[in-house]
Amino acid sequence: MWRIAAPMILSNISVPLLGMVDTGVTGHLESPAYLGAVAIGGTIFTFLYMSMNFLRMGTTGIAAQSYGAGDNDGLRVSLGQALIVSLAIAFAILLLQLPVGRFAIALLGGDAETQQHAATYFSIRVWSAPGTLANYALIGWFLGLQNARVPLLIFLTINIINIVLDLLFVIVFGMKVDGVALASVIAEYSGLLVGGAFAISALRSHEGHWPLARLTRLSAYKSFFSMNASLFVRSMALMFTFAFVTAQGARLGPAILAANAVLLNFQNLTSLGLDGLAHAAEAMVGKAVGQKDRDMLQHTVRLTLKWSLIFAVGFTVTYLIAGPLIVRTLTDLPDVRKTAMVYLPWLIVSPVISVWCFLYDGVYVGMTRAREMRNIMVFSTFAVFLPAWYLTQSFGNHGLWFAFMLFFASRGIGMHFVYKKF
């Protein structure tokens, strides 16, 4: 379990560091428009690529089951189909980049100068789409093979090269947002080269044949599309919930908006740790399903749940003791600090509430139970979260955080009881 979980936790931790460097290099340029442009462009690609995360999740479950069953031809099909679909989606993004970019930048707003720089950033970084989406497929495939070391190498390659090129292009060569975007493009393809090289080596060690009919016939993709369509809907519902929390915070005033932005960093930090264990659950559960080993399946769920709960309690204790210090570190604005402290208790209890849905996400991915994941997510969003928010509006931001906690609890409870029926 730790051979999978530990590298993925390290991989997750490396991602925020890149965002800090992007912010740092543009935040020291002569105009704040550059920083705003990278923020807008980064938001666009975060939304775009997060919505494609099904390429990673779906591939892990399918590959893990083939690995557990000793189906080396199936391993090739899972990788081939994921790469073909990822490149097809990337081609569509490149084909539609002008209308997509203009719409997204206009939607996010900003003054004319900021939008102009954001358009420059988008027009360059969009060419990373084939590399980024292919990396999703490769990372998911390697996790299915119970190998988290290669995904860690891919993440580290991308982030280290990105950081070095950020500093080189902007500070040494005097580039602006174009340098930040170009660094991201080069870094993604560097990661793809690393992942591709290890994939070739892994395929040699798992001798088999490429069933071309299962890669070239559209009908052969039925199960792939069925699973990943459900995962896509699930991701959209999840992103809607987070966007709704931000939007409602904005309606409650700038201090609430800023305080909620600070507090969401606590939730993101929690996910960095718990997602690593969820990734381990994906791989190990998928292998157990492929081997048709019910005892191993149940043992894996108990083991990953135990460690997830330990981590969740650790996060809660840390936030209880160091929460005020973290808030002060994240912002030096007195009003925002004061407001954040009022709502900090919600983030202190969040890890022990949300841990269940993080863990069961991994279990369901390993079992390729995407339809059930989709249904529970949609129910939790539209039948629990939104009604709870509507009924507690009179409590202001406390009502919003209460609804957000119910959203996590509903997902965990729903997934627990449905899992018992499998």
Question: How are the SSEs placed, and which strands pair?
Answer:
Layout: H1 2-27, H2 32-50, H3 54-68, H4 72-95, H5 97-108, H6 112-125, H7 129-144, H8 149-172, H9 177-205, H10 212-216, H11 222-251, H12 254-290, H13 294-330, H14 334-366, H15 370-391, H16 397-420
Helix pairs in contact: 1-2, 1-8, 1-12, 2-6, 3-4, 3-7, 3-11, 3-12, 4-7, 5-6, 6-9, 7-9, 8-9, 11-12, 11-15, 11-16, 12-13, 12-14, 13-14, 14-16, 15-16
Summary?
The protein has helices at residues 2-27, 32-50, 54-68, 72-95, 97-108, 112-125, 129-144, 149-172, 177-205, 212-216, 222-251, 254-290, 294-330, 334-366, 370-391, 397-420. With 422 residues, it is mainly α.
Explain what you see.
The chain is an all-alpha fold and 422 residues long. It is 87% helix and 0% strand. The longest helix is centred in the middle third of the chain and has 37 residues, at 254-290. 45% of the residues are buried.
